[in-house]
Design brief:
Number of helices: 11
Structural class: alpha/beta
Number of strands: 10
Radius of gyration: 19 Å
Strand content: 15-25%
Shape: globular
């Protein structure tokens, strides 16, 4: 299946999860709902969110930066994002948070961090972070944006980094063995490698609907086969390849649904980096655009995240 054909197919389908906000419970003291008339300062909300979490670790930060230059920890990401958007009028009372992140429970951390500021998120994502809710899901999400309000859409693939710096692996609470992260992405990479190396088994078996999302992930990453094969470190290159495919999809979906934007839409796209229980997660910002109600990109806000 060609990449464009896969995009059309995915855009035409909507996952059931697209029609209800996520109900994940966080340790944040902030209420996980859009609160009419919410006046709490967003900076205070961010402080509440990270008060009980892991603190910045300079030694581990160096490990992350060596593998993913430009990555910023979640605390800095949320603080800067919220400050930038507050200047445009975003608040807990008028903003809907939407996400397209992987199903993996580790990917919920970034949602939790933003939940404490903006409330429950509308879930557009599926395996590897692809926006499987498609056009239908985006349309439903846009209809839930508060009147004369805003939306922040956070999207992208994720990758793990273990304490020793191994990319594609991560420590999980309650599990002794270091686990693969992202499992869907690694499986898709292996599928592509089998094709590019010439070792794939020929089969007449059609894609099973019971595993449709994984099949789609594999097809959507397939055009990057040569890029992955030539990469110095395949596990580091993999999330960047995934992001490029996902960003193409998001752009198509947003373009078709742009008339549903009310006052403004902020698109924060990048690579989510999950780490062990005792260290902060990270994010590599690849895109932070602000769109007006007409769907026009009026500002590139990435520089503000890198200050």
């Amino acid at each position: 299946m060609k990449l464009r054909a896969a995009i059309v197919l995915i855009s035409s389908l909507a996952s059931a999860s697209a029609f209800a906000p996520a109900r994940f419970v966080t340790n944040s003291a902030s209420p996980l709902k859009i609160v009419p008339g919410d006046k709490q300062d967003v900076a205070d909300k961010v402080k509440d969110i990270f008060a009980k979490g892991p603190k910045a670790d300079a030694a581990f930060d160096k490990i992350v930066q060596e593998r993913f230059p430009g990555a910023i920890n979640n605390q800095d990401l949320v603080t800067k994002t919220v400050d930038i958007l507050a200047a445009k009028g975003y608040s807990g009372a008028n903003t809907l948070l939407a996400t397209s992140l992987c199903c993996d429970e580790l990917a919920r951390q970034l949602e939790d961090d933003f939940n404490g500021v903006y409330g429950n998120n509308f879930n557009l994502g599926g395996l590897s972070g692809f926006p499987f809710a498609g056009n239908t899901g985006f349309g439903a999400m846009a209809a839930h944006i508060p009147d004369d309000g805003y939306c922040l859409l956070v999207y992208g693939p994720h990758v793990g980094i273990a304490a020793d710096g191994t990319v594609g692996k991560v420590e999980r609470s309650g599990i002794a063995l270091i686990d693969t992260c992202c499992g869907s992405a690694v499986a898709a990479s292996n599928y592509v490698k089998g094709i590019t190396d010439g070792g794939a088994v020929i089969t007449t078996k059609l894609q099973e609907f019971s595993d449709f999302q994984q099949g789609a992930v594999q097809e959507l990453i397939l055009p990057h086969g040569k890029r992955l094969a030539e990469a110095k470190d395949r596990m580091i290159e993999l999330p960047y390849a995934l992001y490029d495919s996902q960003d193409l999809l998001v752009r198509e979906i947003v373009k078709k649904g742009s008339l549903g934007i009310k006052r403004g839409l902020a698109l924060l796209g990048g690579i989510q980096i999950n780490t062990g229980p005792n260290t902060l997660d990270y994010f590599v910002p690849m895109r932070f655009d602000y769109m007006n109600y007409r769907g026009d990109v009026v500002e590139d806000m990435v520089p503000g995240l890198k200050k």
